[in-house]
Amino acid sequence: MSTSWVLLFEVNWGYIKRMKFLLSVMFLFFPLGSWGSNTDVQKIEGKYSFIGESHINTLKIIHKNKIPFGEISTSHSSGCLGDVSGEMKIVSNKKLLLDKNDTEGKCLLEIIILKNKIQVKEKSCLDFHGSSCDFNMMVKK
Question: What is this structure's pTM?
């Protein structure tokens, strides 16, 4: 019985050594500084839009003092209009958040960077647009 415990320990020790080696190699190719960097965010700066039969959506992303800033608007043929703007928080290389909470109202927008377009998902922004439109959109440059 003691022999099996020794073998188990040796097998696990070998596994740990291999994992340690793999992790050290991984950090050679993916340095710690690249995790959560805003490389992709800087690449997406610009104006994006979608024009449909009944609505128009726009998104503008710029940098103000190295901080991403977004301007989002929507208009619907029903007469519903809306816009919101503010600083965006970088969540990851592919995701930003615009969290507006001031005297105008509350609005949380999730901006997802896809291959050749950007998706905006709204989380309760009724204070910034009418009841018959929203900021949910898929926009292209």
Answer: 0.70
